[in-house]
Design brief:
alpha/beta; 5-stranded parallel beta sheet; 55% helix; globular; SIS_dom; SIS_dom_sf; SIS domain-containing protein
C-alpha cells in the first residue's frame, strides 16, 4: 500500500510536468529573455519566496552566480531570503513582516533589474509588497506561482512575466517550480554560450 502511494506521487508529478510543458514553455522563454536582458546590461536578479520557495530563490541565485551546468562568467543575483538580520529587523519598535522583501528591493533594486518572486498561492503579503516596490523601481517582475496566480498575477504589468503552474497541490507546484528554475538557468546559459549537448 505504501509503495503504491509512493508510485502515485511519481505518476502525478510526471503527468503534471507533461501537461504543463506546452502551457509554460512560452512564459518561461519570456522569463529567460527578461533575465538575459537584465544581466547583459549590468543589472541583477533579486529573488524571494517563503518557506520552501525561499530555498528555491536561494538556489536560483546560486545558479546565476556559481553557474548551472556549464562554466561561465558570474551573473549578478541575490536571494532576499538569506539575511536573517534584515528579515527580522524591527523598524520603529514594530516589525512589519509584509515589508521584509520590499525594503530590500527599495534599497538594492534599480531600473532594469528583475525581481523573481516564488509563491504557490500568489497571495503572500510580503511578495505583493516586494512586487509593488519593484514596480516603483521600474524593475521587471517574474512570478512563479500555482493555481490562478492569485493577487500577484492581478498586479503584473505587460512587461512582467507570469509562470503559473496549473495545479492546486503545493507539493506538485513546487516540483514544477524546481524544473522551471532549471529551464531558466539552462535557457540563459544557452543564449549566452550557445547550444550544447546535455552535460554528463
Amino acid at each position: 500500500m505504501l509503495e503504491q502511494r509512493i508510485q502515485q506521487h511519481f505518476i502525478d508529478s510526471a503527468d503534471l510536468k507533461y501537461q504543463a510543458a506546452q502551457v509554460l514553455s512560452h512564459p518561461i522563454a519570456a522569463a529567460v529573455q527578461a533575465v538575459l536582458a537584465c544581466v547583459t546590461s549590468g543589472g541583477k536578479v533579486l529573488a524571494c519566496g517563503n518557506g520552501p520557495s525561499a530555498a528555491e530563490a536561494q538556489q536560483f541565485a546560486a545558479f546565476c552566480v556559481a553557474g548551472f551546468e556549464r562554466e561561465r562568467p558570474e551573473l549578478a543575483a541575490l536571494a532576499l531570503t538569506s539575511d536573517s538580520t534584515l528579515l527580522t529587523a524591527a523598524t520603529g519598535g514594530t516589525h512589519d513582516a509584509a515589508q521584509q522583501f520590499a525594503r530590500q528591493v527599495r534599497a538594492l533594486g534599480q531600473a532594469g533589474d528583475v525581481l523573481l518572486a516564488l509563491s504557490v498561492s500568489g497571495n503572500d503579503a510580503n511578495l505583493l509588497a516586494a512586487a509593488e516596490a519593484a514596480h516603483e523601481r521600474d524593475m521587471t517582475v517574474v512570478v512563479l506561482t500555482g493555481r490562478t496566480g492569485g493577487k500577484l498575477a492581478a498586479m503584473l504589468r505587460e512587461t512582467d512575466v507570469l509562470i503559473s503552474v496549473p495545479h492546486d497541490r503545493a507539493a506538485r507546484v513546487r516540483e514544477v517550480h524546481a524544473l522551471v528554475l532549471h529551464c531558466l538557468s539552462d535557457g540563459v546559459d544557452a543564449q549566452l554560450l550557445g547550444e550544447q549537448e546535455n552535460p554528463l
